[in-house]
Amino acid sequence: MATGTDTPAKPKLDTGLSTRAVLLGAVFTALLGVAVPYSDNRLQGTWIDCCHLPIGVFFLFFLMVAGINLFLRRFLPRRAFSVRELMVIYTMMLVGSGIPSFQLTEYLFPTLSGVIYYASPENKWAEAFYRYIPDWMVPQDEAAMRAFYEGLRPGQALPWRPWVVPILAWTALALALFWTMTCISVALRRQWIEDEHLIFPLVQLPLDMVEEPQAGLLSPFLSSRVVWIAAAIPLLIHSWNGLHTYFPVVPGITLVWPLNQYFRNVPWNQMGPVTAFTHFSVIGFSFLLSTDLSFSLWFFFILFNLASVALYAAGVRVPPIPNYATKPEAALQMLGAFFLVCGYILYLLRGYMIRIVNAAFSPAVDAQDDEEPLPYRLVFWGALAGLAFMVAWCSLAGVRAWVALSSFLLLFMISLVLTRLISEGGLMFVQAPFTPVDIYANTVGTGWLTPREHTVHAFLQRIVMFDLRTFIMPSFMDSYKIAHETGLSTRRMMLPFGLAILLSVVFSYASMMWTAYRFGAVTLSGWFCKASPQQPFKNLVQLLTDPRQPTLAGWVFILVGVAITWALSMARMRFTWWPLHPLGYAMGPSWPMIQLWFSMLLGWVFKSVIMRYATVTSYRRARHFFL
To answer: How far apart, in Å, are the Cα atoms of 462 and each of 323, 324, 393?
Structure first.
C-alpha cells in the first residue's frame, strides 16, 4: 500500500546507448572489418564498403531491422530494439566501414610490401629512392614481403614481426588523421545541420526504415508495396545477369554502354571516359536531390568533355595529372572550384570558428556547446594536437615541417569540399582528381621538394590522400544528422564511434594479412594488390628524374575554375530560376561522375516529370519507390 512519501517511478529514458546496442554495433563493425578485405581481394566481386552508403553496412542493417528486430517485435516485443538503438548500431558500422577499404587497410599493406616486391633491375627503384625511405616506415624483410605476394608455403608461420614497427607508425598517423577529421566534423555540425538544414540524402533511407510502425510490425516505408516492387527490379535484373555470368547461354541484360567508341576521330577522341552506367541506387538517391543540383551534376560532366574537345581543336595542351582519368584542364578547373567552395564554407562557418577559438582561450565563456559531440575547447586543441602530431611524424620521416603542414592543409581543404558534396549532393562516393603534390606541380612546380620529401609523399598520398571515396568525415556528418533526427546524444556516441574505429583497424589488419599470406597477393585484387602498389613509385621515379615545372595554362585553368564557380554562386543567389549549381561544376568529370552521370540524368528526368505532372500523394509514393 502506498504511503504519503512514495513517489511514482520515473519512466526509463530511452537514450539508445544501451549495452546491447553498442555490443551489437561492435560485433557488426568487427565482422565488416574481417569481411571487406577478404571479399574485395579474394572474392573480387562487388566492393562491399566502397562508398558512403556501403552495401555491407546496409545489408547488416536491413538484416537487423527486417529480420532480428521484426522477430523480436512479433514474439518478444519488450526485447525489441528501439529506433535509437538501431541507429546506434547503424552509425557505429558507418563510422568504421571505410577503414578496411579505401580509407586505410587495402592501400596500406600492398603499398608497404609492393615497394619491395615490384622493384626490379628494369625499373631501378632501389637505386632511385630506396635510400630515402626511413627504416621504420616499411618492413625490411624481403622474404616476408615476397611471401605476402606469393603466399606462404604449407606449414610456414605468418611473418608478423617485420610488420610491427611500420604498422604501428602508420596506424598512429592514421588515428591522428581520423581524430583531426573528427574535430573538424564537430565544428561543421551545427552550421550544416541546424543552420543551413542540409538534406543529407544518404541518411534518408535508414531513417525511413526505422520509423515507428503506424500499424503492424514494420515501418511505413518497409510496409509499402511500392518499396518492395522497386527493390525487386534491380534484384531480378542483377540476379539474371549473375546467371548470365556463370551460364553464358542465358542472355544478359545490358546496363553499361561505352560511348567513346562513337567518338574516335580527332578532336572528338579527346573526351575523357564517357560510359553510360546504370546504377539503380544512384537513380533512386538522385530523386532526393534538388533538380538544379541533379541537373548540374550530369550537365557539367558533358560540358567539360565538350570543352576538352574544343580546347584540343584550338591547340591547347596541358600536362596530365597522373593516375586520374579526369582531363587535366577539367581537373584544374575543379581545383579552382574547390578553393572557392572551401572559402565559402569557412566564411559561413566564421561565427562558430570565433566561438570555438574563444572557448579554447577563455574557459569561463559560455561556449553553448553542451549539445555538441565534443566541447569546443577540446575541438580546438584536439585539432591542433592531431595536426601537430602528423607534421611531427612527417618531420621524423625527413619532410620539412612547413611542407608537411601545407600538404595536410590541402588534404583538409579537399576533404571539406568532398564532405559538402556528400552532405548536400548525396553522392555515394566522391574523389578529387588531384593530391597535394599534383597541386604543387601545377602551381609552383616540384623542383623545390627534396628527394626524401618526394619519397615520403609517394607513400603518404597513396595510403591516406589519393582515394578519398570512403574517408571518415562524411560518415561522422551523416551520423550527427541521424542523431539530430532521432534525439540521440552525439556526445555519448563518441566513445562507441572510437570503439568502432579501433575494431575496424584491428580486424581489417588481421583479415588483410591472413588473406594475402594465405592466397598470395598476386592472385588477389588487380587494383589493390597489383596496379595500385606500383603507380606511386613509377610516378616518384619520374618526378625525381624530371621535376615538374609550373605552367601558365595551369594557373589560367585554376583561375577560370574560381571565376566560374563565383559566377554560378552569384547567379544562384540572385535568380531563383537559375538552373546551374556550383557543386555540379566542382564535381566536374571526376571518376565518380564518370560512373554516375548517366544514372543522375535518369533520376533527374524521372523527378522532373513526376514533379510536373504528379499529385502530392503520387509524389510521396514515388519517393518510396525511388528510395
So the answer is: 11, 13, 16
Closest C-alpha to 285, from 192, 221, 200, 397? 200
402-438 per-position pLDDT tens digit: 999 999 999 999 999 999 999 988 888 888 999 999 9
Nine-digit cell at 343? 572559402
Q: What is the DSSP letter of 448?
A: T
The residue assigned the cell 553499361 is 256
Closest by Cα among 460, 523, 430 to 38: 523
Note whether 374 and 494 are within 8 A (CB): yes
CA distances from 4 to 1, 8, 16, 19, 220 (A): 10, 11, 34, 36, 45
Distances (CA, A) of 82 to 78, 85, 87, 202, 435: 10, 5, 9, 21, 43
Specify the residue for cell string 583538409.
Answer: 412
User: What is the pLDDT, as a whole number, of residue 12?
Assistant: 44
- Hey, what amino acid is at 64? M
Query: Which amino acid is located at 476 in the chain?
Result: F
Give the count of alpha carbons within 13 A of 204, CB side only.
Answer: 22
Question: Who contacts 459 (Cβ-Cβ below 8 Å, separation ≥6)?
Answer: 111, 112, 115, 133, 137, 138, 536
Q: How far apart are CA 238 and CA 196, in angstroms?
A: 38
Residues in the chain, pLDDT under 70: 1-16, 364, 366, 619, 627
Is pTM beyond 0.85? Reply is yes
SS3 120: coil
In sequence order, the β-bridge partners of residue 256 are 277
Classify the C-alpha dihedral 513-514-516-520 as positive or negative.
positive
Contact between 106 and 73 under an 8 Å Cβ cutoff? The reply is: no
- Quote the crossing angle between the two packed helices 490-519 and 164-189, to the nearest 10°: 150
Per-residue pLDDT at 10:
39
Measuring CA to CA, which residue among 380, 342, 346 is closest to residue 360?
380
Beta strands in 434-481 (DSSP E): none
Task: Give the integer Cα–Cα distance in Å for 272 and 593.
Answer: 11
Q: CA 200 to CA 206: how far, in whole Å?
A: 12
What is the CB neighbour count within 10 angstroms for residue 258?
11
Instruction: For residues 525 and 532, give the distance between their C-alpha atoms in angstroms, rounded to a whole number.
Output: 10
Task: Give the contacts of 78 (CB within 8 A, at least 6 positions apart).
Answer: none
Alpha helices in 64-158 (DSSP H): 69-75, 83-97, 105-117, 125-129, 142-150
Give CA–CA dist 166/182, Å, rounded: 24
Q: Is the dihedral of CA 318, 107, 478, 232 positive or negative?
A: positive
- The whole-number pLDDT of residue 2 equals 39
